[in-house]
Amino acid sequence: MREQRPSAELLRCRAQIARLSEDVEAVAVRRGRDRGESWDVMSDALALSRDRLRKKWTLEIFDRRMGRRPSPPQPLSTNAGITVFIPQQRPPDTHRDGTPETDTGPEPNGSPPTYPHPSTPTQLLASALSYLQRRSGYTLRHLASDVRVHPSYVSRILNGERDPSWEVTAGLAVACSADAADLLPLWNAVHHVATPSPSTPTQAVNLYRAVLRGLHLAAAAPSPQAICEASDYSLTTTDIVRALNGPRIPDWPTTQHLVLALRGRPADLYTVWQIASSSPGTEVTTISAGAFG
Question: Which position among 23, 113, 176, 265 has the lowest Cβ density within 10 Å, counted as fewest Cβ atoms?
Fold first, then answer.
């Protein structure tokens, strides 16, 4: 004879299954965001709108649902498959360097144009985050909700008035569908954290690209033609595309001109460039013939 269970028991089972389903959805969404997966892809899988899914699973809602308390910083997996470990940072609002750095390393070959002073580390990081916010189209309130801070704090970060923690920096990058690894060199410079020396040429190549991508974001992702013009045509668009995207590593003069055009400090990249350019199988291209006229 068929077992007859009370309807209330069946409904309790249904409620439990629904709670578990919601928990799985919450974890999957936050996992996807930590990996840099887009809201569009995940919302399509759930047959929800992008905005509805974002509002449904903010960090605050997720933490409240999972009953999670603040925990020590954990490694962050990035789009590039690189695990970024959150470094120790200096105390907030101390030793802020408002003086532009002028050390650019060995002078570029040829007759370089007169570049403006490099931006300060705080200016570069703020500019990169500000560009990502504009590109994403999200309001400050929306991003602040994602990273669990006040909108006014996000505004001060984007204006260069506050130096954010790595957790907030990475959270803003992920919320804007960007790779947090590209911001780590900029963040390290702001907080005076020495970037670990690459132990292999492959790591050096990855770091070399990350530094250039970070500077590129800080400059609001200008086109190769715009960078070419900023360098007073010391670089060609081919030089710039190769430097930013690979697979080749440009020579040091090309690297210097590119970093200066993006208002960075070439000296910060010199050691990494040396290791990266020595990678077996890595072709080092020289600056294009006739680039100096």
Answer: 23
Query: Using an 8 Å Cβ cutoff, are 164 and 172 in contact?
Result: yes
CB atoms within 10 A of CB 34: 16
Residue 199: how many other CB atoms lie within 10 Å: 9
* Calculated CA dihedral for residues 177, 167, 74, 178, nearest 10 degrees: 10
| Digit-coded pLDDT (tens) for 75-119 | 444 444 433 433 443 433 333 444 334 444 455 554 456 677 788
Spans of all domains in the chain: 7-68, 104-127+179-293, 128-178
Return the sign of the alpha-carbon dihedral for residues 62, 170, 71, 199: positive
Contact of 237 with 246, CB cutoff 8 Å = no
CATH class of 128-178: mainly alpha
Question: Mean pLDDT across the stretch 137-151?
Answer: 92
Helix (H) or strand (E) holding 284: strand 284-285
CA geometry: angle 237, 234, 212, nearest 5 deg: 60
Alpha-helical (H) ranges within the chain are 7-34, 39-45, 50-56, 59-66, 121-136, 140-147, 151-158, 166-175, 184-190, 201-218, 224-230, 237-245, 252-261, 270-277
What is the C-alpha separation between 50 and 175, in angstroms, rounded?
13
pLDDT for position 285: 52
The whole-model pTM stands at 0.61
Alpha carbon distances (Å) from 100 to 117, 123, 137, 152, 282? 6, 10, 30, 26, 34
